[in-house]
Write a structure and sequence with these properties.
This protein is of the alpha/beta class and 168 residues long. It has 6 helices and 8 strands; from the N terminus they run E-E-H-E-H-E-H-E-H-E-H-E-E-H. The strands form 2 sheets. The chain has a 5-stranded mixed β-sheet, sandwiched between helices.
């Protein structure tokens, strides 16, 4: 219930037909005094509770299908110390372009990074080492076909966006 909340409270309800009497999906609000009521110091607070089961049932009743993405668009592999700095910048840029991108944060060897990309279901891998940095390119490998292409770093986001849209 909402009896211990004060000031602002809210409930999110489902109006889906056939959902039944338990239509509250989420509720919450401000609860100043709750901590004090159970023996603690005077502490203001806010919070909410959400029933995942009810939410899933409401989505089903409304015939709403969530867009669940499996895998990632690109895994950026850094080979060498200089490449690590560049890949941090590159991953940020690719994410800002709307791509689902990951990279290695553990300093693993290239083979381990490629295995991680495979486990994450990466569509592409962009490999950057000293040679690629000199040419300002990334060696981009399509994981399904094994085809590899050198792509200028400045064009990598548009290259990946175009290719990932083809696969959807």
């Amino acid at each position: 219930g909402l009896d211990y909340y004060n000031h602002t409270t809210f409930e999110i309800m489902s109006e889906a037909e056939g959902f039944g009497a338990a239509a509250t999906l989420c509720g919450g609000g401000r609860y100043n005094g709750l901590v004090q009521e159970i023996g603690g110091p005077e502490t203001p607070g806010i919070g909410f509770a959400l029933s995942i089961e009810r939410l899933l049932a409401a989505l089903e009743a409304e015939e709403i299908e969530l867009p669940i993405h499996r895998g990632i668009d690109c895994y950026v592999v850094a080979v060498g110390e200089r490449a690590k700095d560049e890949t941090v910048r590159l991953v940020y840029e690719l994410r800002r372009a709307g791509l689902r991108v990951e990279q290695d944060y553990l300093g693993r060897k290239m083979k381990a990074q490629l295995k991680a990309a495979d486990r994450l279901g990466a569509s592409f891998v962009a490999i950057i080492g000293d040679e690629e940095l000199e040419k300002q390119t990334a060696a981009v490998k399509h994981m399904a076909s094994g085809e590899q292409t050198d792509v200028p770093l400045g064009e990598l986001a548009s290259f990946l966006i175009e290719r990932t849209k083809r696969e959807e």
